[in-house]
């Protein structure tokens, strides 16, 4: 069957281009192929442009990490088999630790709020996190970054872990703060609600300042100035208060 017999009928392509009666009597197969190829090429280029723009926007805040501070790799901080058994057989009726809320920090429509709880087992860490996520506002935060340190007297070593929750490197920085302040048996969570304006490296400053403030508020370190100096000098604080 000849394709030319259909050339007298208007044929609409998805690109909105018509092959009409001007092509009467001619084979329209080639015209079909060319028009479809052009349409697909244009659509592909348009999609690539949109995707590249979105990727650039998402990556912008993740590009800058300070060179002068070594961040712990959270992947190496998971509970290891040597210490995990110390925390396995706790009673199912273990009490939920008290959770404290700190003052918010807001800049360029992004809001940061810290939360703190004394913890002595990984199970308590999970209980606190679950409780926080029952709050719809906290659950809706763009990021809930956390870090904890638990001191094991028997082993004289720490169980510690952190979570970025999508804010690349933030969990490691938060854990690093707990380490240099030498605080123990504590979980700190910092919620961030993104306001639509990129903060760049300032977001790390606000996350750690929020954590410092609540650690001072709850007596885990003596003053905000001391906490700031410890963070800046990358040295451990003398404060070893256990709660």
Automatic annotation (TrEMBL):
Residues 108-215 form the Impact N-terminal domain. PANTHER family: IMPACT-RELATED (PTHR16301), PROTEIN IMPACT (PTHR16301:SF25). Residues 221-243 are annotated as: Disordered. Belongs to the IMPACT family. Residues 232-243 have a biased composition (Basic residues). This is Impact RWD domain protein. GO terms for cellular component: cytoplasm. It comes from Hucho hucho (huchen). GO terms for biological process: GCN2-mediated signaling; regulation of translational initiation.
